[in-house]
Amino acid sequence: MKPELHTLSNGFRIVTERMPGLQSASIGIWVAAGGRDEMPEQNGVAHFLEHMAFKGTASRSPVQIAEAIEDVGGYMNAYTSREVTAYYARVLGADVPLALEVIADILRNSTLDERELEVERGVILSEIGQALDTPDDVIFDWLQEQAYPEQSLGRTILGPAERIQAFRRADLSRFVQENYGPGQMILSAAGDVDHAEIVAQAEALFGDMQPVSQIQAGSAKFIGGESRVVKTLEQAHIAIGFESPNYMHDESYVAQVYASALGGGMASRLFQEVREKRGLCYTIFAQAGAYTDTGMTTIYAGTAGNQVADLARITIDEMKRAAEDFSEIETTRAKSQMKAGLLMGLEGPSSRAERMARMVQIWGYVPPLDNVVEKIEAVSRDDLRRYAERMAINTPMALALYGPVADAPDREALQLARAA
Fold first, then answer.
1. Fewest Cβ atoms nearer than 10 Å: which of 60, 149, 243, 262?
2. pLDDT above 80 for 316
3. Does residue 347 carry a catalytic annotation?
């Protein structure tokens, strides 16, 4: 089956795909409003609002929201990213109308009760504290901040504790009024679903919504900088970020294949050279992330404090060497990993619904999987070498260090190593 797309007269979009043989479905609404849509004084409000959606509506208490879905054996959750906030449920096919009605209820009728707001404030502050106590989590926030300093894309999704302490009901309501219009919403469903029935229900639930004039997030610019937090920990954590293509760039697939070949698996260059041959770390990987207007390829590793310099040097050396000798075997392996990861991941309705929503947000339609596979296949060894040369030498870079890192090389030293 192919995805079916429909747009209501007010701009609300619906995309569904029936997956024959399944008795369950994943359905949700992806709102094109995340961390990067916040003003500086709003940092953390998108995530706070996501939490509050489950804290009661005009017709359901928090317990009744949970019971409505769990009574039929399903589950419901939400997440906030830098470019989207998602509210979704997984249920049996017969319960799709119920799931959509509950999601619509929490989105349109949330009371944002002041008492519940105080309760959830404590939950989010605990979440922030937990993140700060997790080195291989918080280091990526610091890297993001250095890559995009003084920009909405560089701020944390959770927000700073002092902002969370200050938010009031009016702050959350304002964010809804500014960003939760029908033109910002995409209803996506996959599995045992009926497109026509979902469109009809969506029209009844969302057709009366009025468009909003969302303030567009400013375009992001990768700048690059360094964050170094010295702390007594068992391991030193290092994350290096390099500017890479956005979702719509012609080289976005090259960037992903490059990251896979460099550090995407046990056979990758960094894993073999840094961990298997030299035993410098337990975890090391590379990954390519992308947004609508920018992207970042990240390399992360955790190692002993006295080994950070060696690990960083070898990482830069491997990046430079890749520009000269990426092989056909490596290229083929990386492309196979990418294709398999994509296709196997989309065998589940949740992953498929999420992908469709994201594609509609970016492109306005869902690109056929065959076309995506063709673009992956089209990446050549020479493409990788040319891309690797730019990454190794002159692509803007950001650096984040955490733990026993007082003697770790700084960003300037790594830049010199790249140029050598």
1. 149
2. yes
3. no
